[in-house]
Amino acid sequence: xxxxxxxxxxxxxxxxxxxxxxxxxxxxxxxxxxxxxxxxxxxxxxxxxxxxxxxxxxxxxxxxxxxxxxxxxxxxxxxxxxxxxxxxxxxxxxxxxxxxxxxxxxxxxxxxxxxxxxxxxxxxxxxxxxxxxxxxxxxxxxxxxxxxxxxxxxxxxxxxxxxxxxxxxxxxxxxxxxxx
Length: 180
Prior knowledge:
This protein is an alpha/beta fold. It has one domain. It is built from six helices and five strands, in the order βββαβαβαααα. It has a five-stranded mixed sheet with strand order 1-2-3-4-5. α1 runs parallel beside α2. The chain is globular. The N and C termini lie far apart (61 Å).
């Protein structure tokens, strides 16, 4: 893991401030490129539309990067939920096992847990063994979005789309067989 704290990205004379960027390589995934993670960090202030817009710009400029909203507040305000959901929905495209840019939401509950060695205990209850070995950070993103924004995970959306496509295919096949 490599980290860069508090820096600016400049493109076409536009300056974008970044609180934290991390390159993360999962242990058992040497054949997969590391994840680039951008973090918008707040102590006790709220995330704003400007923060959401900046994350959308970063995600657009760096496809497949993980965009993180981290706060020391125990929970998100309604306005924060609205802004972060806008970012989530902006990047919920694609056909792979992850959306275009996964979003990770961390509050004080994840950052400062009662048990120092158990940061993501509530997500472990939802996770299956394959989550840990296939794409743990990607799945943490989805679990955090589901918990904090009360929306479906990318996997749930993909499953529903697949089931709908199979239903249409089966209906078409049945209609074709009935006309023969």
